[in-house]
Amino acid sequence: TFGPRQMIAGRYRIERFLGRGGMGEVYAAFDTVLGEHVALKTVLSTTSDNPSAIKRLFSEARLARRINHPNICRVHDVGVHEEAGRIDERLHFLTMEFIEGKRLAQLLRSGPLDIELGCNIAQQVLLGLVAGLGLVLVRDQLANTIRDPEEIERYLHLDLLAAVPRYEEEHDSL
Q1: pLDDT, tens digit, for every residue of 1-49?
Q2: 17 contact partners, CB below 8 Å, separation of at least 6
Q3: Is the N or the C terminus of the chain less surrounded, counting Cβ atoms within 10 Å?
């Protein structure tokens, strides 16, 4: 767990903790090199010790970067953070576009949507799915979709694991 103002990989300054998921933890951070806010997603230490899992993380990031669509959150980079003097404590992470907003699941819990809003959300969600067609297996759309301040539905996480083995076969140099 990182605290506010902690530097990660000499580049990312942690601003605040956002949440915890199956893969690891997510933080709001500031990229001091590019001067922009990012979401920094860590990988669980048990996964970081597995070379195959790390290879898949890098492959998944490469695949995600191939999808450029307004309804899909962009992945920026992958990296490794090592604590000073503790090489055995390596933490793998990826950075992605930081999107402030309300999760689709939260929006739906607040009550029924009017037909126009519901159709607009459905259309945007489907456009995001079509953009990733052939590369992604989307699951748990409610938890992984956020409505940004411009009222655009954005996928925060696409499960690319189904496509990774095929991608690795096509790109043996990974």
Answers
A1: 788 999 999 999 999 999 887 667 889 999 999 999 999 988 776 555 6
A2: 1, 2, 25, 26, 27
A3: N
- Assign 149 to helix, strand or coil: coil
CA torsion angle 95 138 167 28 (round to 10): 0
- Confirm if 97 and 38 have CB atoms less than 8 A apart: yes
List alpha helices for 39-159, DSSP H: 45-48, 51-65, 104-109, 115-131
Tally Cβ neighbours within 10 Å of residue 19.
9
CA separation for the pair 78, 92 (Å, rounded)? 7
pLDDT tens digit string along 46-98? 555 677 777 777 777 887 787 888 888 888 998 988 875 555 567 889 899 99
The pTM (predicted TM-score) of the whole model is 0.77
CB contact at 8 A, 152 and 71: yes
Query: Which residue, 47, 52, 54, is CA-closest to 21?
Result: 47
Q: d(Cα 63, Cα 76) in Å, to the nearest integer?
A: 12
